[in-house]
Amino acid sequence: MPTPVALVAGLHGGARAAVVERLLRRHPGAVAIHHDLRAIGAGRVERVVRDVSGVLDRAEVHLAHGCVTCTVREDLLPELLRRAPTAALLVVDLWDSVEPRPVAEALAHEEAADLLRLTCVHTALDAGLMPLDICRGERLADLGQAAAAGDQRYLAEVLARQIEYATSISLHDGDEEDAELSAAVLGHLAPHTPIVAEPATTGPAVCVHELAERVDPATAQLPGEAQTGEITTVVWHRLRPLHPDRLFEAIDELVTTSVRSRGRFWLANRHERMLAWDAVAGVVSVEDAGPWLAALPEAAWEMTAPARRAAAALDWNPIIGDRVQHLVFTGPDLDRERIFALLDACLIDQGDALPGAEEWARHDDPFAPVLDLEETA
């Protein structure tokens, strides 16, 4: 039977340490592996292996390709495989700002399947800090939490990914009011993810393909409309395409009226392409998420994942296929009418060219610097 592996992530080091310590104490023979990135600015990564009695091994790791994620993956997997025969449980204690998805996908590699079984991806949060941190617009580098030189990610961006990818979440520290507020926020950001006292370490292996489908734009399990006290989630769902200029002009107001927003959308001048919207704490990312299923020949549909076809079927329209506007906004005291009015005003109208028409090819697209750069990268 493969050795179970618990992946523990989280920006809040104290909360994460509490989970790791509890797992080591409750599972005799458990071993935790942690890559310390405090000296990453000097190009040093330290691997620390410990059990409930203390440190078992400490070694400096070469920074592979100048990439922290590559370093953690390339050093972590061999170390886990080496420890697996004698460990009752392997705990991967990720550094604060390391995102769990690439590590989880590396652990699911075929060569490790006989010895390792990833049983959970757990995110530990400080109940007193999480509701504040998800609203913070600072970069990790400015806060001393960068995972590498040149790390340009934002704190709230990383926190959102750690929350939304996890199979379970735990809350630590803070008082009862902090815990209630944090639970309410999580109920909007990750409504399908259980909040538990400690992660489950038994059972079948986690399917990383299913975890990816939960967060990837084409198949994401987006939150539905909800109201919890002052926290509101609203869903904007339309069938007409958006005018690129109007949407571009509305972006600043849209991202500052909510704490978190995400989803998929359709621009009239990019008729064949699904676009992904991802915004948190006032910072927005717009990316090309590939073709709409309706833009592919039917023969290619069988080559797409079942979850992709299922998601398309839910939005299917006999005229436009799966092309849709599906954006979700979460924040305190959201002005639903204002958000909807802003977005509705961005839709094309009778005076605009039809989506996919030749006129759009001559259009000066404000999204081109980002989206066209992705296509040529």
Describe the structure.
The protein is an alpha/beta fold and 377 residues long. The protein has 2 domains: 3-215, Rossmann fold; 226-376, CobW-like, C-terminal domain (Hypothetical Protein Yjia, Chain: A,domain 2). 32% of the residues lie in helices and 24% in strands. A hairpin with a 7-residue loop joins strand 10 and strand 11 (273-280).
SSE pattern, N- to C-terminal: EHEEEHEHEHHEHHEEHEEEHHEHH
Overall mean pLDDT stands at 91
**CATH architectural type of the largest domain:** 3-Layer(aba) Sandwich
Portion in strands: 15-25%
Uncertain runs:
none
| Main β-sheet description | 7 strands, mixed
Number of individual domains: 2
CATH class of the largest domain: Alpha Beta
Total strand count, please? 13
Which structural class do you get from the secondary structure elements?
alpha/beta
